[in-house]
User: Fold these one by one.
Assistant:
Number 1:
Amino acid sequence: MQNTLPSAPDAAGLEAPEDGRGWMLRGAQLHAAGQLEQALIAFEKALALQPDDVNAASACATLLSALSRPVASYKALLSVEALLLETADGAANLAIAAESCGDLARARVAYQRALALDPNHARSLNNVGLMAAAQAQWEAALECAHKCLAQDPAHAPYHVNLSDYLCGARRYADALAVLETAAARFPDNLDIRIRSAAVLAFNGDFEKSLEASRRFDAATLAYFQEFLGRAIAPAYLDHKLRLLQGELPDARQLYTGQAFEAMTVCDWRDNDQVTATLRQMLDECLRTGQRRDWRDAQFYGLMLGMDENELAQVRKISIAKIGEGLKASLPPFVQRPKTAVRRDDRIHIGITVQSLRDERHAHALKRQLALHDSSRFAIHIYSPTRHPELEHSEMLKPHAASVTEIAHMSDIEAAGRMRLDPLDVFVDMTFDTAWCRPEIPELRVAPVQVRQLTWHRHNPPRPCDYNMSDTFVHPDGLDLAPYGAIVRLPHTCWLATHDEEPESGWDSREQAGLPTDALVLSAVVPSVMLDPQSFGAWMKILRSLPDAVLWLPAYSLPIAANLVREANAAGVNENRLLFAARLPRAQSLACLKHADLFLDTLRFNANQGLEDALRVGVPALSCAGDSMASRLGGSIIRAAGLPQCVMQSEAAYVVEAVRLGRNPQALQQLRQQLLAEKAKAPLLDLAARVREWEAAWATMAERTRAGLAPAAFDVPSSGKQPAG
């Protein structure tokens, strides 16, 4: 915030001022002398004497901001808000203060006022552009950046902002052109130099990027690394690229990182190129023995259509990289001898879970824990909650042997803490989530380590000894030898712990924002799990069903815009894509029941959204692929009682969707069958499924105690039998 304060004479011997002007002079003098607290007192006295004095309020705000008191600074300006809004500078000052305190609505209004008074007000244009970029509104941001640059081309940060916004819009060639012009004008500007190297990589110019980075000295390299630490963190932080301390990503890592980020907003334009690049990187690793932390590629490779063998190699390489240097930091795991004193004879299960700050997840976990046999199993919960809420962990304690928060611990500290508990089996429930810490199982914390749910059929033998599956994901006819110690549950490996009830009411489509006379096809799935193959199949279905609409979640504006572009390119009017309103979960479930048919994604099945649809009585269609991620939907639908709704090919999936869409009676029969099966559907019998998980844990623990190596086995059925 910029304020012009009146100059003051030397304060030596100055008496206490008697009016506002005198206190303003005293404050300016003290400010110039570096006595900020005393200057603030003087300005506050001036403001008390002249409450409508804009200069006094601005001076107070400046000092409060300098003293790291932004809220108080904002309040000082609000006291003269009407007067500040009379000038562009005043409105901009108010907007800056509002933005620093998170009051973005008032900040936007104030910036708009500043630009109404002066359309070329540089500070306002620049900050409005930054706000637009923060919301991925790239066209608005670019408009502001071009205006700023036109006014002052000698200001290097304007060139930097323009290139950043062009990168945000994935217009890398245009960003390079801006940086080339800027580099000629500001050859020593570090921000421009490091961006040039990064954007060359983002654009796929790998050799040029490497050449540019080789010219960096040590200081520039350090600055480059700091910049990349921000630039390579994708919006979907569940699969963030992580680097070892002091390690720089190579150009291809930068390229794939940005391509993965684009996939989170359904921008698939570079999918073919990024797939080819990943395959080149994989070939190089296999040829040279190079290791990469590829936890991001393991996940995004599913949506890119990489096959199971390729992804198995990616996982193997990634695990080897993650393990580098870890074991030397913690003594090797040693299994307790059989004669060791234990607290009790129960089987002790350690489970890493997602953050307990999410109330929905905490309540779902409570439902699961309450069903476990506490006389046979002692459950230890470990959660990486950044800002724990005591009530969430407290409600789990009656059902658990212990609840431990580990967010403040390093991977080594967390593993060391878990080793203190007498664990027989460690279960990782965080696979491919924001809370996944593969370093912990790599350090080994229990004699038996298990992945509760993974997205691949092929799994390396470490760091987990067993991988949970079921008889649909790994059917009897499949040669199980390459898949390792697979534990097959009899019905489904999906544990349906979320049993929220839809809110009462919402009995009409109008209330749900849906057309009354259309066939409503629903696809509730996180945007990151969408892929062009699935969307392309849906567009084929819509072209064959002219009265149908596709009902999608409340995606952000950038995601919606990308999907609209894809629909238009496929010859489907954008008005046939309906995006849900943002509602509380109970209301969303109430609205979901108005869908006619749920369409599952092909490469990465919908899981939770699919379960929700089936639970409220909406029939669903899935297509069984070759990975666990593409077969889990079939597992869930079969366990819900609709085995005939699992197709074996994309072509059959499209044909069946069109057939059902043209046959309301067939759809109604499926709905009636689903509701009739609900009372006995294995999917919704959580107690029986928990018994099966316990049986699996017991077998694993008993084998290990007997000195037997991990081996594949099937779990017998408990409770209700599957339909069909």
Number 2:
Amino acid sequence: MVTRDTLLRDVLGGKSSKAVEKALGLSTVGQLLRHYPRRFNERGELTDLSQLVEGEEVTVLAEVESTSTRRIPGRKLNILEVSIRSGRHRATLSFFNQPWRERDLRPGRHGMFAGKVTRFRDKLQLNSPDYILLGEVGAGPESDGADPRAQDFAGALLPVYPAAAGLPSWTIARCVRLVLDTLDPVPDPLPAPVRARAAVMELDAALRKIHRPDTMAEYRQARRRLAFDEALGVQLVLAQRRHANAANPALARPRVAGGLVDAFDERLPFEFTGEQRQIAALISEELAAAHPMHRLLQGEVGSGKTVLALRAMLQVVDAGAQAALLAPTEVLAAQHERSVNDLLGELAQAGRLGGSERGTQVVLLTGSMSAPARRAALGELASGAAGIVIGTHALIQDQVQFAELGLVVIDEQHRFGVEQRDALRSKATAPPHLLVMTATPIPRTVAMTVFGDLETSELHELPGGRGTVSTTVVPVNERPDWLERVWQRIREEVAGSRQVFLVCPRIGDDSDAEDLGAAADDQQQTASVLGAYAELSQSQLRGLRLAMLHGRMPAEDKSSVMSAFAAGQIDVLVATTVIEVGINVPNATLMVIMDADRFGVSQLHQLRGRIGRGAHPGLCLMLSQLPFGHPALQRLEEVAKTTDGFALAELDLSQRREGDVLGAAQSGRKSQLKLLSLLQDAQLISSARAEAQSVIEADPELAQHRGLQELLWDSFDSERTEFLHKS
């Protein structure tokens, strides 16, 4: 009996199973069946060679166009070079001291060739690739000397698997064929009614057709079923978390009439937008409930998320508890601390001269604080004198103790790991309320998948009285005179008593921790903070007040620079992306981004959000050295067309690898989702979410759904499931 738990060595034999385990890390039948084909080629259809990337292991289907042999003078070395063609594209195969292969690789023959892509004399090639011949066009797979292994590809569709060195795609296909030929029918964990509602095929058929479909329609049906299983596995865990959150007892933190919230509202110099009022009321209601709030607040740059978070913190303080705001950087934490104190005024000075009797205290806690300042902050937290604490990772250290932590606010949460958030929440004696904020809008499918345990609120409206922001792409290599115009534009803004951000991808020293990925051989051509500051302060911007800001400056220096910039004492701030989020300088009206093609879509949108925050209009200039028509330059043009962060989030998702939808960067583990696509499967994810919610409401522990329990554990290993529950 062969099941998914059967060891591969019992089906493939020792030699083949060892090769598969060494190359792919797969040891059971089920693991091999989850190693899905990357794509399918139709028999006789030539694969496009334009997608070859140097250094990658590839498998290509192509036609032999010509062969030639040459000797290396003075050495016993013959090189057989074979030109292969696929459509309009060509590549070269090189074989060393193997002249006999010329008899097989005759012009007109078709074959599959697998190997590592290398570059020789500025041309891509495969050195000594493995290959199988598929015969002449229209001939059988074993005709005219074709390799007998070609029988694995005798069907109408040829599976191409993610391969590894020493294990080409056709070897994987042969192993899969042997497994499928001996595999017993696979039990289906999904009840028939669930399959019917989701309109998916049975699991046994899906596992067979994903590897050996007769038509692409069959493959798509198989993929849909297996992707649904992955989506349902995620959504079941998230639904369990939502159920546990709702059942979890918490201390209600109701609004106190005449308390801090009312006093704060009276101080605000502006009116809330309709969206802000609606979300503020919702948050207030959830804080007053007997189970913890778990809410994601996402919105446009400058849409007022921080003000709503502050109101929530004040409501918790009014109810006798404390609130903690966790920020990803010291610069942002210090900015939040200044903003909160400015917004609260005397309300943040309880117990001090001029402080309000209804007030509280706000403390800052970061890793670089002096020992006396740190001891004072820790004492105020432990005693309960400080109602609000704002800090970085320093907040989660063991020595930090709260009198009564009632609310945790996470700013730019994607920068924190699950363990870090959990460590802060664990400092509360009762489950605290949780408010997660992000100014990087999240596509709907990502919100349903990554943040599926959180209720989501979105802020689209911007407060009145702000200037508009326009964006222009400046290809400086194509129009060198435009660069001079950029420096002139900076001088014009400063002459108008306004300020400028100038952002570079790199710091510029030998240990570029904030480098955005520039290759070592072109770092000298990529703009850096140190280089730009040194050059501009002595040439194009001489006479202006310039300052630098980057992540490796001492904390007190960073704080001093930001305070001076906010106070108008600096004209041009030359910085890295350390100013990407949270920095609020209403007088800054011009953002110049050097080598903007080095930044992602979301980063560009965040940087642009630092300007236009006052009454004056803003201008963002995205400089690039790329030529007209370059794809990265086109991406910049797309960003320039819109300031809608939600639309740009979808664009960002469409232009980059989706990565691990469960947050591999947060969990540190490789995703086990192989088919589910945030771009293609929005409807599938939505369907799985509804199904999971219905099941968990009736059976939270899946006690009556043994098949779904098995699906859950089949989809995710125990560590991953624990991570999902924990986050």
